[in-house]
Write a structure and sequence with these properties.
Elements (H helix, E strand, L loop, with lengths): L2 E7 L2 E7 L8 H12 L7 E6 L10 H11 L3 E7 L3 H14 L4 E3 L2 H9 L3
Parallel strand pairs: 2-3, 3-4, 4-5
Antiparallel strand pairs: 1-2
Length: about 120
C-alpha cells in the first residue's frame, strides 16, 4: 500500500510519498498519482519527499521511472528520499544519472524533512 499527498511540516507544504509498504504492482499507480498532484502546482514550487523501506520498489520499469522523473522535474523545487536500504540507494543513483534529476538521499525521514524546509 502507498500514499501520496500534500502534508504540512513546520509550516511548509510538502508532497509526501509513503512507499514503506508499496509493492511493485502499485508503483506505477503511485507515480501517476504523484504526477497528477504535481501537475496542478506552479512550476518550481514543490518540495517533495519519498519515504521508503526494505520492501520499497525502486522501479518496476526503469524507462517509465526515468520518464516520470523528467516530466515531474519542472514542478519540483527540491526532492528528498529517505529510509532506503543501501542497495536501493545505489539503484536509485543509477536512475538519477539518466533522468537529470537531483534527489537528496537521507537515512531518516526527519533529516529529509528538515533539509526540505531549509530550502528558501
Amino acid at each position: 500500500m502507498f500514499d501520496v499527498k500534500f502534508i504540512e511540516y513546520k509550516g511548509r507544504r510538502i508532497l509526501y510519498h509513503d512507499m514503506k509498504d508499496c509493492d511493485s504492482s502499485e508503483f506505477t499507480e503511485m507515480l501517476n498519482k504523484s504526477m497528477d498532484l504535481a501537475s496542478k502546482e506552479p512550476l518550481q514550487s514543490i518540495l517533495s519527499i519519498a519515504v521508503g523501506g526494505e520492501n520499497t520498489p525502486i522501479f518496476t520499469d526503469q524507462e517509465m521511472f526515468i520518464n516520470y522523473l523528467k516530466k515531474n522535474t519542472p514542478y519540483i523545487k527540491a526532492s528528498a528520499v529517505a529510509c532506503l536500504p543501501e542497495i536501493k540507494e545505489k539503484m536509485l543513483a543509477s536512475v538519477m544519472g539518466k533522468s537529470e534529476r537531483r534527489l537528496q538521499l537521507f537515512k531518516t525521514e526527519e533529516e529529509a524533512l528538515e533539509w526540505l524546509i531549509s530550502i528558501p
